[in-house]
Write a structure and sequence with these properties.
Blueprint (H helix, E strand, L loop, with lengths): L3 E4 L9 E5 L15 E4 L7 E6 L12 E8 L12 E5 L7 E6 L3 E8 L2 E10 L5 E7 L4 E5 L2 E6 L9 E7 L6 E11 L4
Antiparallel strand pairs: 1-14, 2-4, 3-14, 4-13, 5-10, 5-14, 6-7, 6-13, 7-8, 8-9, 10-11, 11-12
Length: 192
């Protein structure tokens, strides 16, 4: 069978998720009537905060396909462009291997990173204070990156075959910034 996770955050607890941080600043969980996870920065330290799967159950091998979908928005950011932001599959909180979306200060970027190197494509989608739906469809030979249903990049190089987890990590330099995650879905076509 396949490996799948889905969370629309209707409960007030992060079941199956771990809170990650590049420092010791806490994050807060809040749910509203529509089931949204909010991540709030308490200090202006430039830390990267977010959630990740506790394990890394996703791997590209044996013809497997990985899919990641998340609806996320840096809605109240003073400046939602920090370069430490990443959304997708990764090997750790500061990823050295992965398949994910990042931020370059103005536009969303698409990244594949393996031991052989990193491939980065700058999309034409500007970062803004609004919700975006990110989707990644990855095989061992190609990765398709979509934002709001539009294909923004295709990668065929530096596709990792390491075990990966699902991540949404956001970096902020401003106290009081809040980021909202509506849902996350990640799955593989087969268990490996």
């Amino acid at each position: 069978g396949a490996v799948e996770i889905f969370d629309d955050f209707l409960l007030g607890t992060l079941y199956g998720w771990s809170i990650g941080s590049s420092g010791n600043s806490p994050v807060f969980l809040a749910t509203g009537s529509n089931g949204v996870l909010s991540v709030t920065w308490l200090t202006a330290t430039g830390l990267r905060e977010g959630i990740r799967t506790g394990a890394r159950p996703f791997i590209l091998s044996g013809g497997n396909t990985l899919t990641f979908i998340a609806k996320w928005g840096p809605n109240t950011y003073t400046n939602p462009t920090a370069a430490g932001t990443f959304v997708g599959f990764a090997n750790q909180d500061s990823p050295t291997r992965g398949i994910y979306f990042g931020a370059n200060g103005t536009y969303w970027t698409c990244v594949t990173a393996a031991s052989s190197g990193t491939t980065t494509t700058v999309s034409s989608v500007a970062i803004a204070k609004q919700y975006f739906t990110f989707k990644i469809v990855a095989t061992a030979s190609s990765v398709l990156f979509y934002i709001d249903g539009t294909l923004v990049a295709t990668h065929t190089t530096n596709i990792t075959t390491e075990n990966l987890g699902a991540f949404i990590f956001i970096q902020s330099n401003n106290a009081g910034d809040v980021s909202y995650i509506d849902y996350i879905q990640a799955y593989s076509s087969a268990r490996v």
